[in-house]
Amino acid sequence: MSQTKAQVKLEGWESRSVPVRYLALMRPRQWTKNLLVFAALIFSIQQADMQMLYQAVAGFVLFCLVSSCVYVLNDYVDREKDRLHPEKKHRPLASGAIHPQTAPLFGFVLLMCCVVLAFRFNLAFGFVLAAYFCINVLYSLRLKHVVIIDLLIVASGFVLRAVGGGLVIGVPLTPWFLLCTMLLALFLAIGKRRHESLLMQNGMGAHRKVLESYSMEMLNQMSGIVTTATIMSYALFTFTSGRTIHLMWTLIFVLYGVFRYLYLIHMEGKGGRPEKLLLEDKHILMTVVLYGFSVVCILLFFNK
After folding, report:
1. Residue 47, Cβ neighbours under 10 Å: how many?
2. Which residues are within 8 A (CB) of 104 and not within 5 positions of it... i.e. 6 or more apart?
3. Residues 6+ apart with CB under 8 A from 21
4. Burial status of residue 74 (CB atoms within 10 A of its CB: 0-12, 13-18, 19 or more)
5. By C-alpha distance, which of 134, 166, 147 is closest to 44?
6. Where are the alpha helices (DSSP H) in the chain?
7. Residues near 284 by Cβ (< 8 Å), separated by ≥ 6?
8. Of 119, 129, 197, 203, which has the fewest Cβ atoms less than 10 A away?
9. For 54-74, what is each residue's pLDDT tens digit?
10. C-alpha atoms less than 13 angstroms from C-alpha of 241 in its C-beta half-sphere
11. How many CB atoms lie within 10 A of CB 207?
């Protein structure tokens, strides 16, 4: 017990209240990934109303809370290995700030509440949310150790977010949009694996066994293939989505955002936490804001 308290003090948690520790366990920084739920609403801005906005916000909140349940499970399973990671060792479970037996109970109660609300809210959305959780549980327990499959599972989570966002407001999504979503998620996942492999080479990332199955050359080749496919797919989406052809002008923001992210990965050694880069890198953040603004303006005023 004294060792646990000393560890908490060491990691800087002793001054933080219990609710703050559980909020940190839920990883609110990673909720930015769930903003993809609003994609269907943005691309349907012409027929959007307040009811659709409320539904999208509800879907976003439910995805955030269920994804937090996944993070709780993942941190519980990996708490011993996370202590070897230079950044993850500061997480509440790895540092000892939260007792390892109370975290699963907290996650289970939160999950049950979210699933019940999701099914009452929208049946199809409830199944998507349940599928998202089940796939991520398999990922946390087994599939994250299977080379290449681990990347595909991460990408599938983003596709399910996009699908859920469409279902919750009753708007179908085009196959090209879903393909773009999957490829962009793969692009980010490969960049994260590259960053982790770099840490492992420096003796700081041996906690993730699947990294032994990747090489820097392989990850660079995969990144090049997925980057090309992402840009081409988005370009085709702008022409074949059934909306205005003026969407093609937003390609410049996609190009800059992808190239900027590649610069951060290859030249500054970043990419381990994409959600952190989104909030901290002013160039990428501004690109995302300008992209969303331009899409809304084009669909509202140039949809002819």
Report:
1. 8
2. 72, 73, 76
3. 13, 92, 97, 98
4. buried
5. 166
6. 2-11, 18-25, 39-42, 50-77, 79-82, 92-95, 102-121, 123-141, 149-169, 175-201, 216-240, 251-268, 274-280, 282-301
7. 257, 260, 261, 264, 277, 278
8. 203
9. 999 999 999 999 999 999 988
10. 25
11. 18
Which parts of the chain have pLDDT scores under 50?
Answer: 1-10
pTM score > 0.70 for this model?
Answer: yes
Angle of CA points 107, 110, 113, to nearest 5°: 150
- Residue 83, helix vs strand vs coil: coil
Q: Which tokens belong to 112?
A: 């049950």
Phi (first) and psi of residue 76, to 5 degrees:
-65, -45
Q: What is the radius of gyration, based on Cα positions, of the chain?
A: 20
**Calpha distance 211→64 (Å, rounded):** 28
* Structure token digits, residue 248: 């093609």
CA gap 279, 153 in Å, rounded: 24
Query: Taking all residues of the chain, what is their mean pLDDT, rounded to a whole number?
Result: 86
Diameter over CA atoms, the chain: 69
Is the CA virtual torsion 41, 279, 269, 91 positive or negative? negative
For the packed helices 123-141 and 50-77, what is the interaxial angle rounded to 10 degrees? 20
Per the CB < 8 A criterion, the answer to whether 185 and 155 are in contact is yes
